[in-house]
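Late entry, evening session. Most of the bench is empty. Finally got around to the prediction I had been postponing all week. Sequence below, unchanged from the version circulated by S.P.
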Amino acid sequence: MNVQDNFAQQIAKLPVALQSWLDGRAIEEVECVVPDTVGIGRGKAMPARKFFRAQRMFLPSSIFFQTITGDYAEVDIPNVWTEADIVLEPDMATARAVPWAGDVTIQVINDLNNQDGTPHPLAPRNVLKRVLDLYARDGWRPLIAPEMEFYLTKPNIDPDNPVVPPVGRTGRKSTGRQAYSISGVDEYAAVVDDIYDFAEAQGLEIDTIQQEGGAGQLEINLNHGDPLELADHVFLFKRTIREAALRNDCYATFMAKPMESEPGSAMHIHQSVIDAKTGENLFNSEADGPSELFYGFLGGQQYYLQSVVCILAPYVNSYRRLVPNAAAPVNLEWGVDNRTTGLRIPVCEPADRRIENRVVGMDTNPYLAIAACLACGYLGMKHQIKPRDAVKGEAYDMPHSLPRDVLTALSLFDECREVREVLGEEFSSIYLAIKRHEHEEFLQVISPWEREHLLLNV
């Protein structure tokens, strides 16, 4: 087979949505993308013909030791700074258009393997696959649906200045407390239209878009599906939304709490588990009531989620969201149709029974957050852990039981050997090192609050 025929055959194997977008056009550039530990996309871009020659590609292992600032954490691995190569393995099922690029460009999410072919344990995609493999061994298949909250803001080019809402089509600055307002979504119609167009070009499905409670805050809900596929979608959507905002002279931010006077942004995750063979929802009993596996998963969330809050709320800023009277949970109580609880059971048909985790922040790495939540549910199902009684009133009035800061959350993760084993001990150790390094970096920053209240008063 000559090079031209091989190239044509590989193009024909691309996902249908991508082939439709290409419409016969020649691909000019390919971006090979890898989600790193903190969720940043890293990788390489190259001419299409080089990519389709299928030569092995490499990245240094050190990309998984970087903090959110780009600094490198000190990790206890022999010869770590030789920065040995790890192998990129393109997952062609993830191939998508890059519709905002000037040239005809596609992006492909890559898995990462060691040079001996084994999955690299630090790659977030592999961490999630590791958890899904545990479910598969028992004939279980989890399903999830993420809800993505984010803010549109005015461009903020000086980090010393507060973030402020953008000016919408009316020429007025957005105001908060207008949840579910249709005109609130229309205020940023140009951005929303570009999000829809970019999503359609990539074959990414949107269930709904709605105005959230904050000024310039929107929410995109995704359909239920495979956890790995939906983690890919959240990863791709973050870039897509940012590009749509930049095209319209504003920013999109996924910070958990970008503005003091506005509510935070969450990534609520709806979770259920089906029988891998029959497709039946294992959370539902034959009598159409909650099953023992439902209660086990729920009990596991209550028992183990404390230990993975450092993944669900990974930064100092994350804990500014998880405070009383801020439309975010402060504990892991559960209730039916109760949005004040950390674990909510939505109103639905028995066959659709699911558990909504409302603790997760939008600033998390989606692969790691989904892996951590499913790991807690898995351990609960295996150990048949019983949940506490459901809360019928407002859980906001109950004690604040979630960790209040990064170091407390990291200590809980460090102490929970069982969860660390499920996620992978090597990954867990490196994650702790990165997050502790980030906290040390943060302690070197002097905040405006300190200058305002301590400079002349102490």
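Two things to note before I forget:
The radius of gyration is 22 Å.
The chain has two domains: 3-117, 130-453.
Will write this up properly tomorrow.
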